[in-house]
Design brief:
Distance between the termini: 107 Å
Number of helices: 25
Bound molecules: zinc ion
Mean pLDDT: 92
CATH architecture of the largest domain: 3-Layer(aba) Sandwich
CATH class of the largest domain: Alpha Beta
CATH topology of the largest domain: Rossmann fold
CATH superfamily of the largest domain: HUPs
Helix content: 25-40%
Strand order of the largest sheet: 12-11-14-13
Low-confidence stretches: none
């Protein structure tokens, strides 16, 4: 029987109908639950510790015991929630009970047969199914005056997953691998493995190894790998057979044609080398996890064959499974390799988090939140599904899944890439352009920038691939394709449209082609179907000697000298400014087709200012303005107003807030606004004290000055002059006119190459 060492127990005296005056020991916390209003006298109160070793008379003594039993042991799992605070311990019928038996060397009494009925020694109920005997056992205890209460408890219980039959816990003898003896080796080899995410190494997997328990190997089943142990029926001598050849040797018969499964293998009888008795194979099969853990050797029939290829492939470079395999396949592979080869089994492992339903719970058919993979493949394609999985979050994270997220991939990425590709194909076909290494080209600054970005991309993606960083080798490709489409192509379209085939046009073709082919190759591990389609048309159709599939193509290499970090940074500034410029234009409600006189910018640093001068043409074209310049100071186009926030500052500084507020409002408003917009704190002196005021504690409002439309983001300001001259209005009209004609062409379903006759009537 088990008691909790630190809980309080009481010895009481009460009047019982059957027994007269009786004394009981039970958990103090359970007194009221058990006796309610009944009057009981507490004779003594003490900690459970005091009960240690106390002997008692057992309720039943059907089986003899061969070692000390029937005394109190102390266990932390005893609770004061139910019962008496004293827990009956039956080592043969429960895991915790068995552990207690191992700790205290208690006898294990098996009173139930394999069929769930009591053994003969349990005389009153021999042959009866244990659950059916419950009422009779209760009656027997009551008759003998040993029953205090009988009742029903609700608790969890194991059932057969297939037929819902209640199961019985049994202590069974079985086979184990004593992995706990080799724990140090298991732990040491784990330190050589590169885990992604890294925390699994010393976390989930490391802890599992640290608390290693012996590997329960035997299974009492029929189908599976038989345990190759033969045991003598007379003297119990055991032999473990290591090969078919050894079995032939021991049995004196050629066993090379033997089916090594049951029932055939069980028919092989050996002669005991100790007593000449009959040896028969033991009943057990091997745990299937041992089979999967033996995969690296079994697949090559190693060590009997293929030693060379095995040594080339072991240990494996890479494995990927979900996080539950830390106790499954990851463990069985690691344990067998550590014990058998004294080696790690895999050098790199990506351990996936589980995919949950949109509501954050496990997907469930009954709740209607399950999504079948084929449904996703059919609706959005396997490539988009994969891309979502790689880019949405690091692979170790648990994620909420919805098909909408995969649809977003198609909209935001796949179609963007496809549109760039199809633009290229359309014009390359029109012009009969083919990639020729020798063609004369003259790269402009956009081409050089795209080449620089492309080579930086190859460098970064390659590095991330080498580091098993999944988002790191996919997300940058998506960003690149976005800039390729929304900046490079957008700013280069006219170069493809013009009729003359000069070196400028050839440069644009070559730049775009190289970018598409390189992206295609880097995309192929993640989006093999899309990449193959692009590759076949872009590469194979013009180069019969190219590898026949993108999956066989060489991984792209980068050229360090093509990477110009200054240029990449400048272009990032430019794209930021034009996006602010477009916002400013929207605010002023002026269509992009209407040319404006001027765009002026204010930036975070002088270095960034160089980008505006260097790429003034690009910015002018994109924003459709006549001139571009830097603002002397942002005050030229915009004035600011600051408002100290009572909620944030009041909470932080209490009654000092009014003084701080006053001090802020007395400072130079533009200086304060600048600092806060750039994300810096400001120093404020109030009542002889200095305070550090944070950007989120003061609201900054911008007001465009007369004649400007303004948009700003942190230290960046874009200001457009909105006044229109008659010339600008006329030019806007001309652009409008062109757009109408383009719309007419479109509705007439004309091809880009079709020439038209145009009739115009003006008022
Ligand atoms: Zn069943
Ligand atoms: Zn023997």
């Amino acid at each position: 029987m088990a008691a909790h060492p630190d809980e309080e127990y009481v010895k009481i005296e009460r009047q019982s109908e059957e027994n007269g005056k009786e004394r009981l020991i039970l958990g103090k916390a359970l007194l009221e639950k058990i006796f309610g209003d009944e009057e009981v006298e507490v004779l003594e109160t003490f900690k459970g510790k005091k009960l240690k070793g106390l002997r008692y008379k057992p309720l039943f003594t059907f089986l003899p015991v061969d070692k000390p039993a029937y005394y109190i042991v102390l266990q932390d799992y005893v609770t004061m929630d139910d019962g008496t605070g004293l827990v009956h311990t039956a080592p043969a019928f429960g895991g915790e009970d068995m552990n207690a038996a191992l700790d205290f060397d208690l006898p294990v009494l098996m009173t139930v047969k394999d069929d769930g009925t009591f053994i003969q020694e349990v005389r009153p109920w021999s042959g009866k199914f244990v659950k059916d005997a419950d009422p009779e056992i209760i009656q027997d205890l009551e008759n003998r005056g040993l029953l205090l209460r009988a009742g029903t408890y609700v608790h969890t219980y194991p059932f057969c997953w297939r037929c819902d039959t209640p199961l019985l816990y049994y202590a069974r003898g079985t086979w184990f691998i004593r992995t706990s003896r080799h724990k140090d080796r298991l732990i040491a080899h784990n330190q050589e493995v590169n885990w992604v995410p890294e925390h699994i190494k010393d976390g989930r997997f490391g802890n599992w190894l640290e608390n290693n328990i012996d590997w329960s190997l035997g299974r009492e089943r029929y189908w599976g790998t038989p345990l190759p142990v033969w045991e003598c029926q007379s003297c119990h001598h055991q032999v473990c057979v290591g090969s078919v050849a050894e079995l032939s040797d021991l049995s004196g018969e050629d066993q090379s044609e033997l089916d090594l499964h049951r029932p055939h293998v069980d028919k092989v009888v050996l002669t005991c080398p100790e007593c000449q008795g009959k040896m028969q194979r033991v009943l057990e099969l091997i745990d299937v996890w041992f089979d999967s853990g033996a995969m690296p050797y079994a697949q090559w029939h190693y060590p009997f064959e293929n030693q060379e290829i095995f040594e080339k492939q072991f240990p494996a470079d890479y494995i990927c499974e979900a996080v539950d395999q830390t106790r499954g396949w990851f463990y069985s592979l690691h344990a067998i390799a550590s014990l058998h080869m004294d080696s790690l089994c895999f050098k790199n492992v990506i351990c996936l988090g589980h995919v949950l339903a949109e509501d954050g719970l496990k997907m469930s058919k009954s709740r209607g939140t399950a999504v079948g993979p084929w449904e996703v493949f059919d609706n959005h394609g396997a490539d988009a599904f994969r891309w979502y999985l790689y880019t949405a979050s690091p692979p170790g994270n648990t994620r909420r899944f919805s098909q909408q997220l995969v649809e977003d991939v198609v909209k935001n990425f796949t179609l963007t890439l496809w549109n760039v590709y199809s633009f290229f194909v359309t014009y390359a076909n029109l012009d009969g352009w083919e990639p020729e290494a020798s063609a004369e080209v003259e790269f402009n600054s956009l081409d050089l920038w795209l080449r620089s970005s492309l080579h930086a991309l190859v460098r970064d993606v390659t590095k991330a691939m080498d580091a098993y960083d999944v988002p790191g080798c996919t997300r940058p490709i998506e960003e690149f394709v976005n800039t390729l489409s929304k900046w490079y192509l957008r700013r280069s379209r006219r170069r493809f449209w013009k009729s003359e085939s000069d070196s400028d046009k050839r440069s644009a073709y070559q730049t775009l082609y190289t970018a598409l082919v390189t992206v295609t190759k880097m995309l192929s591990p993640a989006m093999p179907f899309l990449a193959e389609e692009l590759y076949q048309n872009l590469v194979r159709s013009v180069d019969q000697f190219a590898p026949e599939s993108v999956s066989l193509a060489e991984w792209p290499k980068y050229e360090e000298s093509f990477i110009d970090e200054d240029l990449n940074r400048d272009m990032a500034v430019v794209t930021k400014l034009v996006s602010l410029g477009h916002s400013a234009r929207q605010r002023a409600n002026r269509k992009v087709r209407q040319p404006l006189a001027e765009a002026a910018f204010s930036l975070g640093s002088a270095v960034e200012g160089k980008a505006v001068t260097a790429f003034a043409d690009l910015i002018q074209d994109e924003l459709n303005v006549k001139t571009v310049r830097l603002l002397d100071a942002s005050e030229e186009a915009v004035s600011h107003e600051v408002k100290p926030l009572p909620k944030q500052l009041g909470q932080k500084y209490g009654n000092k807030f009014p003084a701080i507020r006053k001090a802020i409002l007395e400072m130079n408003v533009e200086e304060v606004a600048h600092a806060l917009l750039a994300g810096q704190s400001i120093k404020v002196k109030a009542d002889g004290q200095e305070y550090d005021i944070q950007p989120d504690e003061v609201e900054v409002k911008a007001q465009a000055k007369e004649g400007f439309a303004v948009a700003e983001d942190g230290a960046y300001v874009a200001a457009l002059v909105t006044d229109l001259t008659p010339e600008l209005v006329a030019e806007g009209l001309a652009r409008e006119f062109v757009r109408h004609i383009q719309d007419l062409r479109k509705s007439a379903e004309m091809d880009v190459a079709d020439r038209i006759e145009l009739f115009v009537e003006a008022s």
